[in-house]
Amino acid sequence: MSSVAVLTQESFAEHRSGLKDVEITGSVPEDEAYIPTYLEAFPPLPDKSTPGEKTGEPAGAWSKIRPIKASVITQVFHVPLEERRYKDNSQFGEGEEAKVCLDIMQKTGAHIELSLAKDQGLSIMVTGKLDSVMKARKEIVARLQTQASATVLIPKEHHRFVIGKNGEKLQELELKTATKIAIPRSDDPNANIRITGTKDGIEKARHEIQLISAEQDKRAVERLSFEKAFHPFISGAYNRLVQELSQETGARISIPPPSVPKDEIVITGEKEAVAMAIARIRAIYEEKKRKTTTISVEVKKSQHKYIVGPKGNTLQEILENTGVSVEMPPLDSASETIILRGEPDKLGPALTQVYAKAKSVIVVEVIAPAWLHRFIIGKKGQNIGRITQQLPKVHIEFTDGEERISLEGPTEEVEQAQAQMQEIIKDLMARMDYAEINIDHRFHRHLIGKNGANINRIKEQYKVSVRIPQDSERCGLVRIEGDPQGVQLARKELMDMAQRMENERTKDLIIEQKFHRSIIGQKGEKIKEVRDKFPEVIIIFPDQQQKSDIVQLRGPKNEVEKCAKFLQKLIAELVESSFSISVPIHKQFHKNIIGKGGANIKKIREETNTKIDLPMENSNSEMIVITGKKSSCEAARDRILAIQRELANLKEAEVSIPAKLHNSLIGSKGSLVRSVMEECGGVHIHFPAEGSGLDKVTIRGPAEEVERAKRQLLQLAEEKVKYLRALLYLWLAAQEPASQENGDTDLIPRKCDIIIVTGRAEKCELARAALLALVPVTIDVEVSFDLHRYIIGQKGAGIRKMMEDYEVNIWVPQPEQQSDIIKITGQVASVERAKQGLLQRVKELQAEQEDRALRSYKVTLSVDPKYHPKIIGRKGAVISQIRKDYDVNVQFPDKGDEQQVYWLKKNANEARAAIEQLVAALQDMVSEDIRLDRRVHARIIGARGKAIRKLMEEFKVDIRFPQPGSEDPSKVTVTGLPENVDNAIDHLLNLEEEYVSWECRTADDNKALAKGFVVRDAPWNAQGNKAPDMSSAEEFPTFGSGIAPKQTSAWGPKKC
């Protein structure tokens, strides 16, 4: 039984005085690494043999040096005649065998030579790098030699050793034996491994597989349970003892890390090695259990981390120096009790080291107002940087919103840092002050100004710092910090600005954008006058690109109102004076209207207060535009027309033409009426506005030309009437047979509607047929009313395209009529083509309807929500593949609903079966929790999760690591099929052991490297010699140097 004594820090001295004086010897064991002699590390070159002496193999240390292997190898093998795949010898070197060899050479990069033996067997020589030769050999055997197959039976649990890590062992075996080896899946009950290849290759592969299985039969796995407290004695400091045991016995020993609450130690290896390891471990455990005792001490929780040290190195150091194990309470426990376990005479020194480590670092708090913290830190951390540079082991931490500043580090350095911090605080408190003012957050951007102009000016002028909260905070508290006098002056100015802004008002005026330029004036002259009149009002016009009509006024309330009324009055005047009329004046009279030096036009402008714009000289336009008030524009127009009348004998006449003929007389884009005006000496013809219903057309110009234009217009109108009547007659003629059949005698053409064709009989018939072909016809096509909207298309696009393609007019009945009749009007041939096109479109739409009906088939199935993420897959990969493979739409439900699959009946059922199969596989899965050392998590996960994804794909499992802040940070969950989960867990535990031991080896290697390279019996150790001076040009001469030696060095006499 082990006794427990509870010691406090105060009674430690008394406890220590009662212990026997024990001579503490260094616990570092002797270096076990072999130190070579100088001659072994640097063997001399062999002496030159005497002439006539037989040279044998080199003697001495040089005989131990391995020869360098050639990078290019050659292999020759023979294919008997009975095993040749291609036996046609008539064209050796040109048949299939040669083609196959060329293809293999291109794929592998190896060189292949074929030769035919006397027994008609095939000799093949392959040259190249080892990897290329092995690949080429495998290809040759597979493609030039007939294949056989055989099976070999080994236990199912040995299959994974044949496969090897990531399948590397299996690939190596296939290359080595030039065979194809098929291993059954883990879920397949069959244990037979099938080998395909040549007879020789099959025998080699079978032999190798049986060797692997036999080797695994010799191995054993043992699990021992020992108290967790004794594990450190078994593993030793820095895991050195357990590594030595592994090397001596050849067994692999896995001890759970301190963070894993497991007592089980796993030993694997050959049976004899495992037995030896168990005996050694049990002996250590029983010895320590018999000899050790424990003491408990109380140490503040905050000091525990200094006892543990980085990565637990301090605990390992104490164990190495004293042989005592220090047991720390868990981090999440409030306990402050630390237990020391070891031999009684070693507990005292260990306790001394524990208290020394606990006191090696202290934490001190310095109090300073929170607003002063950033000044203590300084610009870009200058102030605090000076302290940390002088005292690099001190860590300084500022807490937001709190007055305390924490200093952590060695006692002496922390005290120095504390003194420097207090001096800085005292100095800042003497010359710094602050003030806080509350200003509505709406005014903050005005306080800041454009690009920070206002606030930067205040900062520079008063040498203060002003902190204005962000708009998103919606906080009105503005803080000013700096020199006391500057703070007060800045505060006063900011308060005055805020007060002015509180009395301000913002008003929006709606002014059409076309008037903005007129209000601003040329180079801003007019708006400058307005701003001078109302200096306290800010007038903001929108950017031209915004196309906005809102003009913003901001300033004192009364001034804003006065400015708004002034601008509204100005706008009313602009609107009134923006009336414009166009007056057509003959081009030859424009210069007379302008007058000498612009006298006439200037006089008219001034007297009527209008703006008059004449077309450019090189322009064909005759229109003069007058802008201003309506009455003024009309007065200016009368004066300009009076000038024209004085200069020419102009006449104005009116002619009555039916309004329905106006468009045809104007012509396309006015071409017909323009030709009349040009032909009649440039008269002006004015038609009334479209839709007015007026028949009067006005003609203005020279008297003779007006009469001529009048006659031409009347003649054109009469021709248009005759043309329309002729078309009507032709239409009636086309309808005559139908009317006679129906007994309808009302459609009798008038005499004026008859067209007479004169000429030879056959020509007249052709002309009649051609005229009748020009007469439009109308036919009815029956189309289901449900399809009308699809025929019309989006915004009428479909029906318009059909009318353009077939040159017809298509009339679709209004929706309220619910009619199935669509009318097509146009020439006979066009109407027939349009009918066929419409019926074809109807067939397409009906097929689409049937397809939509099929695709609306729906299948629902219930799936536990916990499987949904697995069905969706990473980034939707699994569900996207199902949608792609079966051409379906899969919808995942809201909470409590069922999953749905839409599409064709067959596809939907197949997709449903695929999802159910996936769910069935997921239901067979299990989840197991294991605990892995937190230190190895990052290495197992890998960069951006690459390593863990590869691991999950290899073992077909899902591995979840704990989130930061988790209650059990070592807990890792593995989900998948039971066998896959077991394999993955074994692999993870192996990785953990490998990474932990690697870290320990790295630490040992670093210690060994610090010692440098050591040799025994060096020349400079001999009496009278000294170590060579590396800085001396004589001891280490450069190439080409001609310095003569002054004395014999430790290296011996120099040879020429």
UniProtKB/TrEMBL annotation:
It comes from Cyprinus carpio (Common carp). SMART domains: KH (SM00322). Appears to play a role in cell sterol metabolism. It may function to protect cells from over-accumulation of cholesterol. Keywords: Acetylation, Cholesterol metabolism, Cytoplasm, HDL, Lipid metabolism, Lipid transport, Nucleus, Phosphoprotein, Repeat, RNA-binding, Steroid metabolism, Sterol metabolism, Transport. Residues 146-214, 218-286, 291-359, 360-426, 431-499, 503-572, 577-645, 649-718, 775-843, 855-920, 924-993 form the K Homology domain. One of its GO terms (cellular component) is cytoplasm. This is Vigilin. One of its GO terms (biological process) is cholesterol metabolic process. InterPro entries: KH_dom (IPR004087), KH_dom_type_1 (IPR004088), KH_dom_type_1_sf (IPR036612), KH_Vigilin_N (IPR057778). PROSITE patterns: KH_TYPE_1 (PS50084). It comes from the Eukaryota. Gene3D superfamilies: K Homology domain, type 1. One of its GO terms (molecular function) is mRNA binding.
